[in-house]
Design brief:
Layout: H1 12-61, E1 82-88, E2 95-102, E3 105-110, E4 117-118, E5 132-134, E6 155-160, E7 170-176, E8 188-193, E9 196-206, E10 211-218, E11 226-227, E12 231-232, E13 238-247, E14 253-261, E15 266-278, E16 294-295, E17 304-306
Antiparallel strand pairs: 1-2, 2-3, 3-4, 5-17, 6-7, 7-15, 8-14, 9-13, 9-15, 10-11, 10-12, 10-14, 16-17
Length: 309
Amino acid sequence: MTFIKRQSGFTIVELLIVVVVIAILAAITIVAYNGIQNRAKHSATQSAVSQASKKIMTYAVTNAEQYPVNLAAVEMADSTVTYQYKVDNSVSPRTFCVTATNGTISYFQAHNVSSPKVGACDGHSSGGVATITNLIQNPSAETNTVSVSAAGGGVALSRDVSQAFSGLASIKVVSDGTVSGSGTQHLTMSSSYPAGVYRGAYYIKGTAGVSVYGVLRAVNGGVADTQTSPVILTGAWQRVEVPSMTITGSATTQFSLMARLNAAVATTFWVDGAILIEGSTMPAYADGNTAGWAWSGTTNNSTSTGMPQ
């Protein structure tokens, strides 16, 4: 009698179990490795910003209590960390703030902060996300109407604290109905900007049923206005987003962001929360009074920078 010897081996189910176990172990290993790497980045970034802060304060000790005007003066060099720095030696007490970023991790330390904190100084980018700048220099009429103007006869403009979308005031525009087409103009830019793509928006409130246009005009850009379709006011605050405008060439350009009546009509409306940015994606409104943002100059009367809201 001949006996046939059977070959033993793994079944498909057993092989699948082994594969699943290996996959689970690999996933656990990767997660553990990423956690260790992430903690190492946090530690390195904290250390980097702490060292930068110490060097800045040491510099002041030997330089008449003046903080350095830039980080080149304190020789900060780290191939894995990028730094952002701002300083003001004209105020008392003098101030500085430094942000260190490693990939998506950011820490900051300031003249009045004893140890590194997660995040970034006001006006600095954080976690690898770039900042944006609101180019409107008086976006909410919080203190005055500098750089704001009205065009056309029969149109009056003033700062008004009875209505506000952002802050405590807004721009009040009164038309006696004698102006058609050209209507009203507000927030004329007093500064110039280089070639690029620009877009603007603002909030408006007025008598329900009144029709207006949102307009972006390049005063010396050699391109046509961009404008919205007629916007019908509702009596409540509503946002008007003006289509983007592309400026080419090397010449700088002045901009006017306008609210323009669609027809001659006696009416009153308010404008607030204006923003003009370089780029085609329109973010939510923000200015130097927004958390994480900073004015580039005079509070409420300069451009402002911060993270997209």
